[in-house]
Design brief:
- It is a single chain.
- By secondary structure, the chain is mainly alpha-helical.
- Helix content is about 90%, strand content about 0%.
- The longest helix has about 40 residues.
- The model has no long low-confidence stretch (mean pLDDT about 80).
């Protein structure tokens, strides 16, 4: 029961913490125009894509090797 309560608490708290920005990023976006904000957003998406690609590749290789070992 306590684990469910802690999980519920974390689910409520984590989204509020994830909306924050570092002070430097916020200052740059506020001083720059729309182009700067779009550039920072593009950089974030670029940095976010690589972990997903790595995990997908690892999962594919694991699945392929697992399927080969089951056929033999």
């Amino acid at each position: 029961m306590i684990y469910k309560g802690l999980a519920f608490l974390f689910i409520l708290i984590i989204p509020n913490l994830s909306y924050s920005q570092c002070a430097m990023c916020r200052a740059v976006v506020e001083q720059g125009g729309e182009e700067v904000a779009e550039g920072i957003n593009s950089g974030i998406v670029y940095l976010m894509a690589f972990p997903y690609i790595l995990v997908a590749t690892a999962f594919y290789l694991f699945y392929r090797n697992w399927k080969k070992s089951n056929l033999q």
